[in-house]
Amino acid sequence: MSNETKAPGQIVSILLGIVVLVVVGIWLLAKLATSGFDVNAEVMSKEAVAARLKPVGESVASDAPPGMRTGEQVFKGICISCHGAGLAGSPKFGDAAAWGPRIAKGWDTLTQHALQGFNAMPAKGGAADLTDDELKRAVAYMGNAAGGKFTEPPVGGAEGGAAADPAVVGKKVYESVCVACHASGAAGAPKFGDKAAWAPRLKPGLDEVVKIATKGLNAMPPKGGFGGSDAEFRAAVEYLTNAAK
Ligand code: HEC
Ligand code: HEC
Fold first, then answer.
1. What is the assigned CATH class of domain 162-242?
2. What residue ranges do the domains of the chain occupy?
3. pLDDT single digits (tens) 183-242
């Protein structure tokens, strides 16, 4: 008897339990959805991205003296974190379709946007220590990889001034590194300004000579022991070989 009277009560509690579960379930789903939205908002925040990028930019700074980084070095150290994969809507590296309309804006607009920031693109890619010329080199490097025809501002010295001249950069590198062997002809090095010693070496052309000297040759150490950029080393080879022409 008592069992029969309890049965409807149990059904009511089960039904109530289901209603409570459904309500709690909906509440949890709603909460999940909103917190998911919050997470996205944080990912898209320029400041958050820039803050996370900062150590990357700083570690790159030690690869080359400040102001001397090439476009490739800046790209690989900083810009790649977004532009490598096309993160946050950035035009992807090497993607001519994505870069085409941007390249069409022209050099001045592109560099201005990269310097000052543009929507989700942080100013200087979040690396405040980049010089304007380093940043412009990276813009040219990325633009050219996607079909652009920009000229990277040359590496070395005062921005846009006479010191940016490769001849000046080459002389500086020569006088600080190469002079140790090439001034006197130590260890069989072709002597500075010695036309007869240089003539047979210059026959294959500058590109080939730069390649050989970059790798090293017998007593000539790779890059002559110079630790700077390829562009600066090339300038030194040019300075050295021009003096023997
Ligand atoms: C935090 C991510 C991020 C980093 C790092 C970053 N960019 Fe960008 N960049 C973007 C985004 C996003 C856009 C697209 C912005 C838009 O069109 O709304 C963009 C666009 C650009 C553009 C095109 C601007 C235009 O007018 O269309 C250039 C040029 C550029 N970036 C250069 C650089 C350079 C150079 C670096 C490295 C020094 C760099 N970016 C680093 C996110 C980034
Ligand atoms: C430690 C001494 C030393 C230093 C420092 C040095 N060189 Fe050399 N370099 C040599 C020697 C030795 C050779 C000749 C190697 C041979 O032909 O066996 C040579 C050859 C060269 C050549 C000719 C390569 C060829 O194709 O025949 C170039 C170009 C050159 N050096 C450039 C440089 C530059 C630029 C620097 C400075 C960044 C530099 N060297 C620093 C020792 C040096």
1. mainly alpha
2. 10-44, 47-145, 162-242
3. 999 999 999 999 999 999 999 999 999 999 999 999 999 999 998 889 999 999 999 999
Q: Cβ(201) to ligand 2 under 6 A?
A: yes
Same fold, 47-145 and 162-242: yes
226 lines ligand 2 (CB under 6 A): yes
Instruction: Confirm or reject: Cβ of 224 under 6 Å from ligand 2.
Output: yes
Q: In terms of CATH architecture, what is 47-145?
A: Orthogonal Bundle (1.10)
Q: Is the pTM of this model over 0.70?
A: no
Q: Which two tokens stand for residue 216?
A: 């090293």
Residue 125 Cα: closest atom of ligand 1:
41
Q: How many CB atoms lie within 10 A of CB 80?
A: 17
CA–CA distance, 38 with 80 (Å, rounded to integer): 26
d(Cα 145, Cα 109) in Å, to the nearest integer? 18
